[in-house]
């Protein structure tokens, strides 16, 4: 139905594939990294599934499983803040402030590295002050238990 209306009243030209999928904003260097070892989004879908499993584990009262799953994402340098935030929170609940600081510092380092895709970098720039505040809290708790 909508297709017929578009034909009658005219429509914009169909965008190229790279425009539809947001690839037109990528630099040539970023496009070349897609699918390679240097791609910061490599394994993204598997990591998101792992994060869902970690959240489910935490909800059912198995924080050890959640920690193992989130730790894997942190070790892989996942580009989103969720696993870092959730893992640091799990460590804080256990009063393991050194582990929470390690995870928080890992995200701060990643956010400041310039290696993140643009969208993730913009998000990281917004969240960075919260992570820096958490790092300060953890340091205080480590030095003043």
Can you give a write-up of this model?
This protein has helices at 2-9, 17-20, 28-33, 44-59, 63-76, 82-93, 97-113, 118-143. The chain has 145 residues and is mainly alpha-helical. The protein has two domains: 1-39, no CATH class; 43-143, Alpha Horseshoe (Serine Threonine Protein Phosphatase 5, Tetratricopeptide repeat). The radius of gyration is 20 Å and the shape is flat. The model is unreliable at 11-24 (pLDDT under 50).
Briefly say what this structure is:
The protein has 145 residues and is an all-alpha fold. Helix content is 71%, strand content 0%. It has two domains: 1-39, no CATH class; 43-143, Serine Threonine Protein Phosphatase 5, Tetratricopeptide repeat.
Task: Please give the structural blueprint.
Layout: H1 2-9, H2 17-20, H3 28-33, H4 44-59, H5 63-76, H6 82-93, H7 97-113, H8 118-143
What is the first-to-last residue Cα distance?
67 Å
Assign the CATH superfamily of the largest domain: Tetratricopeptide repeat domain
Radius of gyration: 20 Å
Helicity level: over 70%
Under CATH, the topology of the largest domain can be stated as Serine Threonine Protein Phosphatase 5, Tetratricopeptide repeat
Largest sheet: none
The CATH level-2 architecture of the largest domain is identified as: Alpha Horseshoe
The CATH first-level class of the largest domain comes to Mainly Alpha
Count up the helices: 8
* Principal-axis shape: flat
Beta-strand residue fraction: under 5%
* Quaternary organisation: single chain
Number of individual domains: 2
SSE sequence, one letter per element: HHHHHHHH
Extended strand count:
0
Briefly note the structural class of the backbone: mainly alpha
| Overall pLDDT confidence | 80
């Amino acid at each position: 139905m909508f297709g017929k209306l578009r034909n009658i009243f005219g429509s914009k030209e169909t965008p190229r594939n790279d425009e539809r999928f947001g690839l037109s904003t990528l630099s040539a260097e970023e496009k070349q990294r897609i699918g390679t070892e240097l791609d910061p989004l490599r394994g993204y879908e598997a990591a998101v599934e792992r994060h869902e499993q970690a959240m489910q584990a935490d909800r059912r009262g198995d924080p050890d499983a959640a920690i193992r799953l989130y730790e894997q994402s942190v070790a892989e340098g996942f580009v989103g803040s969720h696993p870092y935030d959730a893992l640091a929170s799990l460590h804080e609940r256990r009063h393991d402030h050194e582990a929470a600081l390690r995870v928080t510092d890992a995200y701060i380092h990643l956010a400041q590295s310039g290696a993140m895709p643009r969208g993730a970098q913009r998000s990281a720039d917004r969240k960075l002050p919260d992570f820096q505040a958490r790092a300060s809290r953890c340091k205080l708790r480590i030095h003043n238990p």
